[in-house]
Design goal:
GO terms for molecular function: urate oxidase activity. Belongs to the uricase family. The chain has about 280 residues and is α+β, with helices and mostly antiparallel strands. It has two domains: about 130 residues, Roll (Urate Oxidase); about 140 residues, Urate Oxidase (Roll). The protein is built from five helices and twelve strands. A hairpin with a 4-residue loop joins strand 6 and strand 7. Helix 4 runs antiparallel to helix 5. The radius of gyration is 23 Å and the shape is globular.
C-alpha cells in the first residue's frame, strides 16, 4: 500500500539565482505482517498521509540533488525509521522545467516547461537486501523524415501494406534501465549521457543520418549504443510506440503527390519493445 501522485515544487535559492525541481512521487510499502488485511489490526500501518508528509519533509531537509538520490533517501528513511517495513519502493518523475535564456543569457529566476521527454526513476529495497535503482525517460517524441524504410517482410493473403524504402519514422519512446546495486554514481551526468545516446542512435550523423530498416532495428541500435558507452547500465528496456503518416492524395486537387502533405494515423498504432542486458 502507499501514497500516489505526491506532487510538489522544490525551490532552492543561491543568492539571487533560483533553482527549481518539480516532481511527482509514488511511495509504496510492504509490512512484515499482513494483520491489517487479515484481522483489521492497524497497529503497524503507517498512514498514507504520513507517507506523504515524510516525502515533503525529506525534500525540505535534503533537497533533490538528483531524482535517484531523492528516491534513495525515501527508501533509506522508511527502512531505518520503521522496523515493520519489509519492502519500500519509491517512484519519482520530474516536470521538464528548463532555465529560460534571453539572448543567450540564462535568467536567474525564470523557467520554461519543455516537452522533450520526462525523466523518472525508481528505487526499491527489501529489508536485509540490496538497494536497486532504475532510471529512465518517457514521452520522448522523435521523428526523422527520411532514411527509414520497411521492406522484405512476411506477406500472405491478408497483407495490404506496401513495401517502402523511404518513409517517415516517428514515435513516442519509453526507455528504462537498471543500475543493479546502488553505488555512488553521478546520476544526473549518466542520465544526460544516455539521453544523448538515444538521440544519436535514432537520428544518425547530423549531415546524413543513418538508414533504419525497421522500428525494431532502431530500438536495438539505441540499446547497443547505451550499453557500449555507459558501463553503469546493466539492463535496458526500450518501447517505441509508432506514429504512421499517410500521404494526402493531391491529384484530385490538381497537384502532384510529392509527399509534402501527410496526415497521422491516430489508431491503431504499432509498438516495438525489447529488453537487453549484459551477459
Amino acid at each position: 500500500y502507499g501514497k500516489n501522485t505526491i506532487k510538489f515544487l522544490r525551490l532552492h535559492r543561491e543568492g539571487k539565482k533560483h533553482f527549481v525541481k518539480e516532481v511527482e512521487v509514488c511511495a509504496h510499502l510492504r509490512l512484515t505482517s499482513p494483520q491489517e488485511y487479515l484481522e483489521g489490526n492497524n497497529s503497524l500501518v503507517i498512514p498514507t498521509d504520513t507517507i506523504k508528509n515524510i516525502v515533503l519533509v525529506l525534500a525540505k531537509k535534503n533537497g533533490i540533488p538528483s531524482l535517484e538520490e531523492f528516491a534513495i533517501d525515501i527508501c533509506n528513511h522508511f527502512m531505518t525509521t520503521f522496523c515493520q517495513v519489509a519492502y519500500v519502493k519509491a517512484y519519482v518523475q520530474e516536470v521538464p522545467w528548463q532555465r529560460l535564456h534571453e539572448d543567450g543569457v540564462p535568467h536567474i529566476h525564470s523557467f520554461i516547461c519543455v516537452p522533450d521527454g520526462i525523466r523518472f526513476c525508481e528505487a526499491e529495497q527489501c529489508r536485509n537486501g540490496p538497494l536497486i535503482v532504475f532510471a529512465g525517460i518517457k514521452d520522448l517524441k522523435l521523428m526523422k523524415t527520411t532514411q527509414s524504410g520497411f521492406e522484405g517482410f512476411c506477406k500472405n493473403e491478408h497483407t495490404t501494406l506496401p513495401e517502402r524504402h523511404d518513409r517517415i519514422l516517428c514515435g513516442e519512446l519509453f526507455c528504462k534501465w537498471s543500475y543493479g546495486e546502488c553505488k555512488d554514481f553521478d546520476f544526473n551526468c549518466i542520465w544526460k549521457k544516455i539521453r544523448e545516446c538515444i538521440l544519436e542512435a535514432f537520428a544518425g550523423p547530423p549531415d546524413c543520418g543513418e538508414y533504419s530498416p525497421s522500428y525494431q532495428k532502431t530500438v536495438n541500435c539505441i540499446q547497443m549504443l547505451v550499453l557500449s558507452r555507459v558501463s553503469q547500465v546493466q539492463v535496458i528496456e526500450v518501447v517505441l510506440n509508432n506514429t504512421f503518416y499517410n500521404v494526402v492524395d493531391m491529384k484530385n486537387l490538381g497537384l502532384t503527390n510529392d509527399k509534402e502533405v501527410l496526415v497521422p494515423v491516430e489508431a491503431p498504432y504499432g509498438s516495438c519493445a525489447c529488453t537487453l542486458g549484459r551477459k
